[in-house]
Design brief:
Mean pLDDT is 90; it is low at 1-9. The strands form 4 sheets. Strands 3, 4, 5, 8, 9, 18 and 19 form a 7-stranded mixed beta sheet that branches. Helices cover 24% and strands 24% of the residues. Strand 1 and strand 2 form a beta hairpin. It is an alpha/beta fold and 380 residues long. Pfam families: ADH_N (PF08240), ADH_zinc_N (PF00107). It comes from Lactuca sativa. Homodimer. Keywords: Membrane, Metal-binding, Transmembrane, Transmembrane helix, Zinc.
Length: 380
């Protein structure tokens, strides 16, 4: 059992005071302060955060931990268990969780608008004088302790390195799973990846392990070239260096387009390029032969709609989205964690480019904004 948990045994089931990074408004710097964390209620878990990291989703609005105490009814974990927190939960009992066609839970799917716990519609965080502090994306891990629905907490192998396991809470599962679960990329396939942040690099690793014959990375940051090659990218395109569009260059390189494209930038113009980079229809004896799938992974905050004409879908191309890489968190993530520990092609250490103490969280965000980090690991 983690020493910090042993020290906390005197407060099991009681309110805890701890350090947290609180955002009091959009665009404002984090305030490092002492907060109060209530004990977990029914089917909730209070967790001691050991490592956390920042991602682009945090900017627009992964983590490894140890269970500190559990609420009534929690049966699949106990105090001291090593766990991952996930923003896309799984209750295992609703019609959605029982379906093989989706990984979105009816109750605990990702919901950026929900900022309170489901039990009583209240928060488990407050300031020292009792002012409520709201939750974020089912997780709220910028705190030494957090309270979560047990449906969003996954027990993993205690031998797994917790610092690297933070990647599975978000980027690695999303990108790698989009390749293996959503697209089902096959050996010899051609792939284009638009946006080489952490998710895009995870897509490259997934495509590499699946035996893709050509993996083309697309990014306006020239520094991503070397990192992409390390992950398994075979070709790199910087659209700013081209005299043609990125999709035209890709179609030239692949004799008509790639089998799979992945949009990881959260930009509709980039999505359009990704869509056009896939194989379109060919004619053979008046028969339509078309293929090519675009998987949307980027977070799109714009009110603009998809930049597609419906008739373009008659050319054989398809487009779909993927949440959390198609993984059912409680059922499948622990097995994926074991796979990451033993499969040579998955290079977890390559994602962690910086490590900082938790108090330097604003610096971690700045590194991400400037495109200088893939993942900055924060030590609590």
């Amino acid at each position: 059992m983690d020493n910090s948990i042993e020290q906390a045994n005197g407060v099991l089931g009681k309110e805890i005071t701890c350090t947290a990074a609180v955002a009091w408004g959009p665009g404002k710097p984090f305030s490092i302060q002492q907060i109060r964390v209530q004990p977990p209620q029914k089917l909730e878990v209070r967790i001691k955060i050991l490592y956390t990291s920042v991602c682009h989703t945090d900017l627009s609005a992964g983590r490894a931990r140890v269970v500190e105490c559990i609420g009534e009814g929690v049966q699949d974990m106990k105090e001291g268990d090593h766990v991952l927190t996930i923003f896309n939960g799984e209750c295992r009992i609703c019609a959605y969780c029982k379906s093989e066609s989706t990984n979105l839970c009816e109750k605990f799917r990702v919901d950026p608008l929900r900022s309170v716990m489901r039990n009583d519609k209240k928060t488990r965080f407050s300031t020292q004088d009792g002012k409520p502090i709201y939750h974020f994306l089912n997780t709220s891990t910028f705190s030494e302790y957090t309270v979560m629905d047990s449906a969003c907490v996954v027990k993993i192998n205690p031998k797994a390195p917790l610092d690297k396991m933070t990647l599975l809470s978000c980027c690695l599962s999303t990108g790698f799973g989009a390749v293996t679960n959503t697209a089902n990329v096959q050996h010899g396939s051609t792939v284009a990846v638009f946006g080489l942040g952490a998710v895009g690099l995870a897509v490259i690793q997934g495509a590499k392990t699946r035996g893709a014959s050509k993996i083309i990375g697309v990014d306006i940051n020239a520094d991503k070239h070397i990192k992409g090659q390390t992950m398994g990218m075979t070709h790199f395109i910087n659209p700013r260096d081209l005299k043609m569009s990125a999709h035209e260059k890709i179609r030239e390189m692949t004799e008509g387009g790639v089998d799979f494209s992945f949009e990881c930038a959260g930009n509709l113009d980039v999505l359009r390029e990704a869509f056009l980079s896939t194989h379109d229809v060919k004619y053979l004896y008046a028969i339509f032969l078309g293929w090519g799938v675009t998987i949307v992974l980027g977070i799109h905050l714009t009110p603009r709609m998809l930049p597609l004409h419906p008739m373009e879908l008659f050319d054989g191309r398809r487009i779909t989205g993927s949440v959390f890489g198609g993984f059912k968190g409680k059922s499948q993530l622990a097995l994926f964690a074991d796979q990451c520990m033993h499969q040579d092609g998955i290079k977890l250490e390559e994602f962690i480019t910086h490590e900082l103490p938790f108090n330097n969280i604003d610096q971690a965000f700045q590194l991400l904004v400037l495109g200088k980090s893939i993942r900055c690991l924060l030590h609590l």
